Amino acid sequence: MAEVKHGRPETLAAQALGVVDAATGALIPPLHPSTTYEREADGGYPRGRVYARADNPTYDSAAHTLNALEGGAATLLFASGMAAATAAFLALQPGDHVLAPKVMYWALRSWLLGFASDWGLVVELVDTTDLGAVATALRPGKTKLVWVESPANPLWSVTDIAAMAELAHAAGARLAVDSTIATPVLTRPLELGADLVMHSATKYLNGHSDVVAGTLTTAQVDEYWTRVKTVLGQNGGILGTFEAWLLQRGLRTLFPRVRWQCASAQSLAERLQALPQITDVLYPGLPTFPGHDLARRQMRGGFGGMLSIRIAGGRDAALAVTGRLKVWKRATSLGGVESLVEHRASIEGPSSPVPDDLLRLSVGVEAVDDLFDDLTQAVDGE
Ligand SMILES: *Cc1c(COP(=O)(O)O)cnc(C)c1O
Asked: What's residue 347's pLDDT?
């Protein structure tokens, strides 16, 4: 890891740790597309780099900055959030028992119930907001990884990371947290006792809807982490050079983007509650939200930029609302500077636990009144 300069997290992010390029004095790091590195005459590699599937100096800025923001021992970049998340499971052994949430990011849930189960992991889904249910599901000595997502897609349920870490550790398991929605601006899972933090960097970390990337940050460099690195290097799901460079660029504005998005989401959640066509607003920042007290303890400075609304009249009414929106873009994904709306049930299919009157909203950095006015006219209809 590069030398971590002093400063508060906002400063570390804005200046990407204050690193200046030694060769040129450039404040912005260079892009290194080279796939290979020169050997010395004696056959050695004194600069430590051999081949770009193993390592790429363009990764350093984003990886070191995120590592500092999460307070980790090491961070790896992956070709996508899914490449990062699946590497955490593929570093286990067939036969190992793992726990994951019942309501979680859809594609990872499908992979766990499909590929990972076929490969030999014993996958059990549990309501991770219910500590008693988790305690019952844990199999001491057999459970190797507990996976949580907080707040979790797309109902934004909040899981108690510190309590989950205690439960997992008492059973001899690691705790991994998909912190894509919280970002290190709002929650630092490693400080709460988690062993591993995963991000879909496609979302808030990059923040501009122009990079697909994923990350894992570990609390300790140990044998398990070495296996994670082997999965990355051998399966080969590495991030492209330009994507890594764009990611360090996006990370510099993480704090102002996320804080703006939190403020707008909070304001929208409060105002949308008053609209009669909206039967429920799901947002951890609302005092009426079931996980609100926990979110107040666990999230600092905001409750995230994601919320969901339920529309009176069910599925067809919800789809009709999306059709009338002009400012909000109808698209999947989240965490970018432009606001997105999505009807999750139609994306996830019949086995989805998501209600079919639900619209998921990813709040961008537009004027919040434009976002509110657009939703108001769309739920009003013609
Ligand atoms: C998008 C997302 C993922 C998957 O990341 P990709 O970059 O799309 O592979 C995982 N978890 C959460 C919470 C996400 O939003």
From this structure: 83
